[in-house]
Description:
This protein has twelve helices and ten strands.
Amino acid sequence: MDWGMRNRLARIISPKTNRCVMLAVDHGYFQGPTTGLEHPGETVAPLLPYADALMLTRGVLRNTIDGGAQVPIVLRVSGGTSVLKDDLSDEDLTVSIEDAIRLNASCLALSIFVGSPHEKKSLTNLSKLCDKGQKYGIPVLAVTAVGRDMVRDERYLGLACRIAAELGAQIVKTYYCDGFEKVVDGCPVPVVIAGGKKVEEREALRLAYSAVSDGAVGVDMGRNIFQSRWPVQMIQAVRRIVQEGKSDQQAWEELEGMIG
Length: 260
Ligand code: R5P
């Protein structure tokens, strides 16, 4: 692997721990002003000290994030759909490689929709993006988005993750499921999990712990951090699990101690 590619990956996934706490705040790219992200810059600022990487769109980056921020950027470069349409799979590439470089992106993120009406388009989008990333030494994170009728089980997620890696993604983002260790085992590149819908803090910590115990290198978590009543304490608790090897119970007890 080229030095630039390795260096950018090392900025995201710590070489010391081989783990990553990525903060996802890209939801607005198809959902608009998602709860907790009405003013993304204000939401993100207190969380940045605890994030190994920040996943977002160029619009939110340019308009709301301080240019002096030290956090590596995972730039969302696919889109073109909205929640007003039934089929979210009809995405295109939405950012040129030149603009991603101008924004000093450490990684490019794109969704794939295996089994959906626009499966082929999303997969060839991934291939094209990987070609561009290879040319300039920028890794690609493939997000295994799931259509409304698709089941998030080991068979489906294992298939989607493997295809993403086969087409050239350097990191894959997916969902936790029963049999998750098989999903990781069948995927030759690092896997991070999305947090999914907001659940109780205790449950979200259990999810993070299960994911890393079953082989994920970490999380790319959004709503379960920024929609928490205690977002700063929550990202710290997730960090204790992912980067410090604490159990979900230990992290929960420490979180309870902080919130009183
Ligand atoms: C979804 O398309 C986005 O990429 C989100 O960043 C992703 O789902 C992770 O966020 P959450 O933890 O809220 O599921």
